[in-house]
Amino acid sequence: xxxxxxxxGTLPKQARYPDPSPLxxxxxxxxxxxxxxxxxxxxxxxQQTTTGLRKIIELIDCTGSGDVDMKTSVTADVDEQGVIxxxxxxxxxxxxxxxxxxxxxxxxxxGWKDSxxxxxxxxxxxxxxxxxxxxxxxxxxxxxxAKEGDALEALKAMKExxxxxxxxxxxxxxxxxxxxxxxxxxxxxxxxxxxxLLAAFNEEFEYGSFGDDTxxxxxxxxxxDGDLLSIVTLSGTHGTHVAAIAAANHPHEPLxxxxxxxxxxxxxxxxDSRLGSQETCQSLVRAACELARLKPDVANISYGxxxxxxxxxxFIEILQEEVVxxxxxxxxxxxxxxxxxxxxxxxxSGNNGILSVGAYLTENLEESSYALLNSVPERPFSFSxxxxxxxxxxxxxxxxxxxxxxxxxxxxxxxxxxxxxxSMASPNAAGCVSLLISALKQNQIQYNPYRIxxxxxxxxxxxxxxxxxxxxxxxxxxxxxFIASLHHNLDVLYDIKVGGNNRGRGLYxxxxxxxxxxxxxxxxxxxxxAKPLEVETxxxxxxxxxxxxxVCSAPWIQAPEFVLIANSGREFLFNVDPSELGPGLHVxxxxxxxxxxxxxxxxxxxxxxxxxANLSADKSLRKFNDLEFDSGEIKREFIDVPPGANFATxxxxxxxxxxxxxFWLTFQQINNQTPYTAMENxxxxxxxxxxxDVESDEFKWVKKFRVAPNLLGELVMCQYCTSLGKTSVSVTxxxxxxxxxxxxxxxxxxxxxxxGDLLFINSGNASLTRCDIHSRLRKESITAVSASLDTLQxxxxxxxxxxxxxxxxxxxxxxxxxxxxxxxxxxxxxAEDSKVLPFYPPVMNTVYDSFFESVWIFVFDSKKALQxxxxxxxxxxxxKEGTYxxxxxxxxxxxxxxxxxxNAPILINFEVKSVTLSAYKTLGGxxxxxxxxxxxxxxxxxxxPFWLSGxxxxxxxxxxxxxxxxxxxxKVVDAIGIHKIAYLVPSEIAKAKETVADALIxxxxxxxxxxxxxxxxxxxxxxxxKISHLKKMEAGEKRDALVxxxxxxxxxxxxxxxxxxxxxxxxxxxxxxxxxxKLVESAIGAILDVIDRKSLAVYFGLxxxxxxxxxNGKKVAKEMDCQKEAVVLALLWNARLAKYKITSNSPSxxxxxxxxxxxxxxxxxxxxxxxxxxxxxxxxxLQKKKPWxxxxxxxxxxxxxxxEASGNDDKAVVWRELVEMKKKTLxxxxxxxxxxxxxxxxxxxxxxxxxxx
Length: 1253
Prior knowledge:
Structural class: alpha+beta
C-alpha cells in the first residue's frame, strides 16, 4: 500500500502556535510586507486569510520599471455613430468604449509602454518564442502567396533582418470625478472594448492579466495627479514564493499553508525588471519609505549583496531609524547564500535592528523535497552565510528552515515550486514573528522589535553553530515575552562599540600580530529605545537601569564582573589573550546578564572572533592530506599569506569515492571597508567516482588565482549537505610571488610596483618602460612575457552644469523632507562599433551602503531611443558607431551635496581591439627591434629587467586621444593575468612640415578668382558669419535683406549659394506654393550656373595627394568638396521639385520624363545607395505600381546599420522617411504581420520623449 506523501514537510513549520491564542485567531490583525520581485495576486494561497480577509492589501512597484508618462492630454473625436476615438502615442487610432465613464475634465491621458521593461526575463523569452512561431506562420503565408520575384526577394530580406520588437501597448487614463482609472491595450489593436479599466489596486483591489498566453498579473498605481501611471507586475518568481512561505492560506489543504496563514500581505517590488530583477538604490529607498508610511508589523527582505560598511547607507539608515525604531516594524532579512566561508553575511542582514536569518536543513524538508537515498543529519545548509561581520558583530541571529515547495506566479504555468536558500528561511522566520505579534496584540502585551529579537535569540535551539546561533523556537520565544522587563532593560537595543580603528560591534582578530599578543580594548554599551519621539519613551529613558553581570564564555577573555548601565551608556575595558590558542577558529563572548533576570538570558553579547593561522616553516607551501568529509561537513584552515605573494596554485585530489559528490572550495581574504567578494575565489566541483586503486584514476583538479600578500587567507572545504557518503580529499596550496616594478629611466628606479594591483607602465610621451620582475618566494619559470591593452577609458564632463530639481510625491522621506535630483547630460561619441561601459566611480558597487538615494545612468541615441540602463552595478553594452546622449541622475536629500557635483565627470570604458606591447631583453633590443623576452628562470630573491615598447600613432585605437587611459594585463604566468596595467595615451605626433608643390591646378570653376592670392581674412570672417547667421534667421524682411546683401557682395560664393538653397528649400517644405517653388528653382539655377560640372567631374575622376600638394592643394581639395556638395544639393532639389510637380498636378508623361531625367542627373553625383536618392527612387517605383521592388530597395538600405547612425541628423531624416514609406507600402500590400513589427519598432527606435528614470 502506498505511503502518504509527507506534505507537511514541503513547508516546514518547526514550532507550534503560541498559546493561549485559539488556532482560528492566529495572526489576526498582522501585516507582512514583502520586499522582493513582487507578489502575484493570482497565485494559489494568495486570495484570503484564514478569517476571510483579503490576503494582499497593497501592490506597489518601487523600481520605476513599470512607470508610464501620462502627461499628454487629448480630446476625443466622436463620429456620427457615437464612436469615440483618440490618437495614441504609438500612432494607432484608439477606440474608447462608450461604457467607460466620461472624464471629469472631458480629456483623456495617453501614454505607451513596451513589454521589454516590464516582463520577467524568463517570460519575455518564452513569449518571444511564441511570437516568432506565430510570425513565421503569417510570414510563410505571404511568401506562399507571392507572385513575383521582387516580392520573394523583399520578403526574404526582411525575414533575414527580423528582430522581435516585443509588445508595445497604448495606455489610456481618465479621472471619473472620484478616482483615476487606466486601461492597457494588451492586444495592440487600438480597440479598448475588452481592455480592463482599473483603478489603483489599493482602492478597489482589482487586477488584470496580460492575456491567457502570459498569465502575468498586473495592477495599477497613480501618482502626481495622474501624470504618472505605475504598472505593477513581477520581475520574477521569487517574491511570490517568499510571500507564500510567510503567509499562504490553502483552505482545502491546511498542511500547505504558510507559517502565518492569517496574515495579510503588502508587496513592495524592489527587483527592477529592466535589470533582470536586480534591486537598486531607488527601489530600496522607496520601499523603506513605503514601510514607514504603511506601518506593517513585519517586513521580509530576501534580497541582499556584499557590503563594505555596516550601519551605513541611506536604505539601512531609513530602515533602522524610521521603520524599526520609530514605527516598530520587525524587519527580517536573509543572511545570504555565500557560506560556509566566514564574514559572508550580505546586506541588509548583519546591521543593527534587523533580524538576520540563516538557512537550516530540517528532517521533514529533507524527506519531502530532496528525494535522497539516505537521510542526512539536520544541520545548517552548507551555503548559508556566516558571520562575523567585518566590524565584528555575529551577523546571523537565528536559523529557520531554508527550503520550501510552495506557490509561484501563474505565468510559470506551475502552481508550486521547490526553492532553497536563506531567501526561504527569512520568510519562514517572518511568519513566526507574525505569529508572536498576533498573540501579543490579542493579549494586549506591549512589545517592540528589540524585545522580539532578544526573545528569539535567547530561546533558539542549539544546533552546534560556532557562533551559538540557534534554530528559531516560537513557543519558547512566546514564553520569554511574558518575562517582565525590569526598568525596561529587555526592551532596548544595546549598541556596542569596541574601540580601535574599526570601532566595531565586536572584536575580530585575524592577523598574526593580533592573534599572538594580548589585546586590551575599550567597549561602550549604549541602550537605544524604540519610538524615541514619544513622550512615554522619555520616562522610560529616565527609569532605565541595568545591573549587569558580565560573564566571559572563554578563559582567554577577561572583563569586569559587574557594570551598571544607565540611559547614557557605560564604557569599560576588557582583555583578550589569544597567545596560547592553537590554529583555527576561536569564538567567545562577553555576555551581559541582568542580575535580577538571569533566566531571561543575556541582554547583550560582545562577540570576539579569532582566526589564528596555521603557521608553517615553509610559508609558500601548504598541504592538507587525506581529509575526511561526510554530508555537510565543513573544514577550514587559516593561512598567513606570505609577503610578496600575488598568486597561488591550488590542487585537489580525491580517491576511494563511491558515486559523485558536490564539493565546495573557497579561498577568501577580507579587508576593512571592502565587500567580502572582492578577494574571494570560490569553486564548485563534482568529485567523480574513484573506486579503483589505480593512482591515475584519482580525481584531480588544479586552479590558479590571485592573492593579496600579508592578509590572512581562509581556506574552506565542504561537502554539500545533500551529497551522500564519505569523501577523502587532499588539498595542496602553493603560493607564488612575481612582483613587477615599472619606471621610465634606463638605469631603473623606484617607479611604481605591482603585486597584483594597477601598474602604470608609462608617463605620457615615454616611448619605453623599464620593468623589473622579482621572484619573492620560490624559483619561478616564466615562459613568456606579454602585455596587452584592450580597454580605452575616457573621462566625460557634462555638456553644461547640471540642474537640481525637487522630485515628486513618491520620493518623499518619512521625516517629510523632499528628495532632490541632479540630472547631468553628456555627449558620448563612439568612433566604431564597440562594447561600452559608462560609470560614476564614487558610487560603484554600493547599493545598500550607498550615500545617495538613487543613481542612474541612461544612454540614448539621437532619436531618444534608450540603448542601455546602468545603476551602480554598471554593465557593458554594445553600441554602434555614432553620437549618443548620456544622462546621469543623482538623488539626495542634500542640495548642498548635489551643488558640488553639478559638473561631475563620468568615465567611459570602450572595449577595443587588443594592442600588444612587445617585451625586449635589453634597451638596445627595444630600440633596434632586437631580441624579445622568451623564457626566464628566476631563483628565489632574483630579479631581472625587461623593456616594454610604447604605442602611439596608428597603433592606438581609433578614438584614443591624449590624456585617455588604456587598460589591460601584463601576463607573466600562464592562465592568469595578475598584473593590471594602465597606459596613458601620449600627446599627438607632430605633423610633418608642409611642402608646397606648385603643381598645375586646373581651373575647375567659372567663378572669378577661384584661386585668390590672399583674401582679406577679416572680410572673409564677416562673410562666413553672415552666411551662418542666415541659416538661423526666421523668414521675413530682415532675412530677405541679408540675402540681397550677400548676393550683391558674394553672389558667386558657393557656401552662400548652398545656404541660400537650404533656406529657400526649408520655406518650400513648410509651405509648398508656386512662389516658394520658384525661389528654390532660382537657387538651384544659381549653383549650377556658377559651377563647371564637367571640370568638377574630371577633378574627382583623378587621384589627388593633397598632403604632397601642400596648403594650396588642400585648399583646392576643400573648394572642390564644397562645389560637389553644392551640385548634389542642387540636383537633389531639382529631383524633389520634379516629384512635387507630379504629385500636385495631374500625372503626365512629360512630367514623369522630367523626373526620370532629374534622377539620372542626380545619380551621376550621388550614390544610388544613398538614402536621399533611394527615397526618390523608391517613390518612383511605387508610382510605377512596383511596390515590391520599392520595398526591396528600402529593406536593403535599412538593413545596413550604418544608415541609422546615431547623431547624424541628415541620415535620421531620411531614415524616418524611408521607414514611413516602408510601413505605408506594407499596409497597402496587406502585410499586416509586418505592419505590426514596423509600428512597434518605429516607436521603440524613435520615442516621443526620453525614458523616465
